[in-house]
Amino acid sequence: MSFDIIKNRIVTRLQGLGYAESQSIDIKNAPANEYNNTFIIKVLSGAMTDESETLIDRFYDIQDWQIQIAFERSEQNDIINRDDAQRKKDAILKDLDNPANWEGFARILKYKGWKVEELPNYFLLTINLKIVDTIIY
After folding, report:
1. Which whole-number Å values give the CA distances from 55 to 34, 60, 78, 137, in the listed order?
2. pTM: predicted TM-score of the whole model, two decimal places
3. CATH code of residue 40
4. How many domains does the chain have?
5. Looking at per-residue confidence, does 87 or 54 come out higher?
């Protein structure tokens, strides 16, 4: 496949859950009005699998992708907002990790891990994905 196909399909899945892609490349630079409803997606790295060495016309690229969403904080609603971030994380993982939602554009898509960080102005949800892409040449 390709970077664009994988990114566009993940973006489409997240849009179906009510999120839009942020115009920022870093949460720290994102405006507060993007909290709760936008995400930043990026590919972090890739590596060839061992089984790739035996194939003649393709190789499998194991890629690490990251999705970040900031959720607003306030003194009055910190617990509610933190719990809401956890519920939204569950919905995203359930959707992205479902093979019916990624078959056809990736060989494998699995979540590797997630974390919610409490930062001064927002909760930051970070989801890391493992994607195995088939590169044919």
Report:
1. 44, 9, 52, 11
2. 0.85
3. 3.30.2000.10
4. 1
5. 87
